[in-house]
Amino acid sequence: MLQSPVEFFRTLPKKVCPECGQQVMEQAESYLQECDRCLSKKVE
C-alpha cells in the first residue's frame, strides 16, 4: 500500500548540520545544509 504524501513528509528525519550536528530549523524555499551558527563562521 502506498503511503500518503502528508504522512511521507511528516515522517522524514530532521535535517542536521554536517559541521556541528545541531538540528537545522528548516524554512520553505531554503536549500541550506549548515546551521546559522556554522554559516556565520564561514562569512567572517
From TrEMBL:
Name the domain of life: Bacteria
This chain's protein is named Protein YhfH
Q: What is the lineage of its organism?
A: Bacteria, Bacillati, Bacillota, Bacilli, Bacillales
